[in-house]
Design brief:
By secondary structure, this protein is mainly β. It is built from one helix and nine strands; from the N terminus they run H-E-E-E-E-E-E-E-E-E.
Length: about 130
């Protein structure tokens, strides 16, 4: 629970860096949509936490891969289908979905609307041992 608490605190204060300077990002503005591929941006990159934002237009997807850390997906807008070990789960705005380390996963936007979500990884994958 401590790592989830740390992750959620960081999400609420996204953009504060370790040197005390402020660089505030708003996850609802300038969402990184792209026409030809999934859009993404990195929001927090610290030893115990990595937060990224992914933006999917209708029909776009995050390719199948294994989770490289303990992950939580927090849906910011729209609706996505998350496939975990072959089982589909529909997640909509406001949902938070946990994904266990090494779980086979993919994400797709099968709706007619744009979708965006945060990927919260704790610890940062760079700190994970194989």
């Amino acid at each position: 629970m401590k790592s989830l608490f740390t992750a959620m605190c960081a999400v609420l204060m996204i953009g504060l860096n370790v040197k005390g300077g402020e660089h505030m990002n708003n996850i609802l503005k300038d969402i990184p949509y792209a026409d030809s591929h999934m859009g993404k941006r990195q929001l927090v990159d610290e030893k115990h936490l990595l937060v990224m934002q992914v933006a999917l237009k209708p029909g776009q997807q995050v390719p199948q891969h294994n989770a490289n850390s303990n992950v939580h997906l927090l849906i910011v807008e729209g609706q996505i289908i998350v496939t975990l070990d072959g089982k589909d789960t529909v997640a909509t705005k406001g949902d938070i979905l946990p994904v266990t380390f090494k779980t086979l996963m993919s994400v797709r936007n099968a709706s007619k609307e744009n979708a965006s979500f945060l990927i919260i990884k704790s610890p940062n994958p760079s700190e994970m041992t194989p």
